[in-house]
């Protein structure tokens, strides 16, 4: 098949990482994939470098920068952006006329709007993967007109969590026939070296450097641990994390900054941490990576987290899911869960043994098979 993949940006978010991984996997299977980025001014080249086989197609950088400035004016005057979207619609429509793709697969609302408008009047189907932005907007009663337009115009909507599906069906029951749940696939191909032998037990987290991911709660909980030979590895990049690093007085806590080799970083962990309170959380890629490398997880019960850790529809889980009601409870429950991992080695080993089975639901082969059906209209 000939496929267009659209992403608004290429930053460190799970949606962007997944769009690239999926495009690479589709290419490996023999499909022709054209990858469009709507905002070339918001591309993290360190991520792009991980996918040298993918050619990134964009409008000229100077043009986008100019149109972004114009849109800032129209946003104030008319309440919406216009020119970046229109330019990308025209750009992609020209490629559609030349290539005649079987389907466009877009990620996040801005890309969905461009894909739908660019494909209008053609035979190309438009498929989206919902990454949390739709449900977050609907909860806050934002962008309802645009989302309604998308729900009616898109050929298929793939959700990645039960919560997303429930919210969309609640608002758009007539579109039930085009909504399905498809977990993001994760290709685990390259073999990694075993965790280096160490006398230290390592808790670790990789996430975006925003406060809502729970960095401060995790640090405070970790500092309560009195067990010797324990450390905390933190991977993320932002001014906020630099501030936390500068304030840190605990020599056991290490801030490593950005990594475009998440699996190599996670391989040094004993336990993966995820105390996120981010309202748009859905299917965090970090948890998939923890499970892939058989690292038991301690995570807040948010988005699809509980189902992600579940083993084959049983009551068994590959980690500990906490249910705090406030910040104080978050810190206390994180501490208790970490301490349990440390002082009960047999319990830790049981959880570790569950990880591989929990990871099976994120097979990239199954993910591609499901999307191929969507691209062909076999919903």
Q: What is the helix tally?
A: 16
The percent range for helix content is 40-55%
Could you give the order of the helices and strands?
EHEHEHHEHEHHEHEEHEHEHEHEHEHHH
Shape: globular
Rg, alpha carbons: 21 Å
Q: Supply the helix-strand structural class.
A: alpha/beta
Order of strands, widest sheet: 3-2-1-4-5-6-7
β content, as a range? 15-25%
Q: Distance between the terminal alpha carbons, to the nearest Å? A: 17 Å
Overall average pLDDT: 94
Q: Regions with pLDDT < 50 over 5+ consecutive residues? A: none
* β-strand number: 13
State the major sheet: 7 strands, parallel
What report would you give on this structure?
The protein is of the alpha/beta class. Helix content is 46%, strand content 16%. It has a seven-stranded parallel beta sheet, with helices on both faces. Strands 10-9-8-11-12-13 form a six-stranded parallel beta sheet, with helices on both faces. The model has no long low-confidence stretch (mean pLDDT 94).
Show the helix and strand layout:
Blueprint: E1 2-7, H1 14-28, E2 32-37, H2 45-48, E3 56-57, H3 61-78, H4 83-99, E4 103-107, H5 109-119, E5 125-129, H6 133-139, H7 144-153, E6 156-159, H8 162-171, E7 179-181, E8 201-206, H9 215-223, E9 230-235, H10 239-247, E10 253-257, H11 262-266, E11 271-274, H12 285-292, E12 297-300, H13 305-309, E13 319-322, H14 327-343, H15 345-359, H16 364-376
Parallel strand pairs: 1-2, 1-4, 2-3, 4-5, 5-6, 6-7, 8-9, 8-11, 9-10, 11-12, 12-13
Helix pairs in contact: 4-5, 5-7, 6-8, 9-14, 12-15
How would you describe this structure in keywords?
379 residues, alpha/beta, 7-stranded parallel β-sheet, 16 helices, 13 strands, globular
């Amino acid at each position: 098949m000939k496929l267009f993949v659209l992403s608004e940006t290429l930053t460190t978010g799970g949606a962007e990482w997944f769009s690239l991984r999926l495009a690479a996997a589709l290419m490996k299977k023999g499909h022709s994939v054209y990858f469009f980025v709507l905002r070339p001014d918001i591309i993290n080249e360190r991520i792009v470098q991980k996918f040298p086989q993918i050619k990134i197609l964009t409008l000229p950088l100077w043009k986008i920068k100019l149109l972004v400035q114009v849109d800032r004016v129209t946003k104030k005057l008319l309440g919406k952006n216009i020119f970046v979207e229109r330019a990308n619609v025209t750009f992609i429509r020209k490629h559609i006329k030349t290539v005649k793709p079987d389907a466009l697969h877009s990620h996040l609302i801005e890309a969905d709007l461009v894909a739908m408008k660019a494909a209008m009047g053609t035979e190309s189907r438009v498929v989206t993967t919902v990454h949390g932005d739709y449900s977050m907007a609907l909860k806050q009663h934002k962008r309802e007109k645009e989302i309604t337009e998308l729900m009616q115009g898109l050929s298929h909507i793939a959700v990645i969590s039960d919560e997303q599906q429930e919210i969309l069906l609640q608002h758009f029951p007539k579109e039930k026939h085009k909504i399905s749940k498809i977990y993001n696939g994760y290709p685990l191909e390259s073999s990694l070296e075993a965790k280096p032998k160490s006398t230290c037990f390592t808790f670790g987290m990789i996430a975006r450097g925003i406060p809502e991911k729970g960095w401060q709660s995790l640090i405070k909980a970790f500092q309560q641990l009195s067990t010797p030979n324990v450390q905390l590895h933190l991977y993320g990049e932002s001014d906020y994390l630099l501030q936390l690093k500068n304030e840190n007085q605990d020599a056991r806590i290490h801030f490593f900054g950005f990594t475009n080799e998440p699996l190599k970083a996670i391989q040094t962990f004993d336990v993966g941490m995820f105390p996120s309170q981010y309202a748009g959380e859905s299917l965090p890629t970090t948890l998939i990576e923890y499970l892939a490398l058989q690292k038991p997880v301690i995570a807040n019960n948010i988005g699809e987290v509980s189902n992600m850790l579940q083993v084959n529809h049983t009551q068994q889980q590959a980690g500990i899911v906490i249910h705090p009601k406030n910040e104080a409870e978050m810190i206390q429950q994180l501490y208790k869960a970490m301490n349990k991992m440390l002082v009960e080695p047999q319990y830790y080993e049981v959880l570790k043994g569950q990880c591989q089975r929990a990871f099976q639901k994120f097979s990239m082969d199954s993910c591609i098979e499901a999307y191929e059906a969507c691209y062909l209209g076999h919903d």
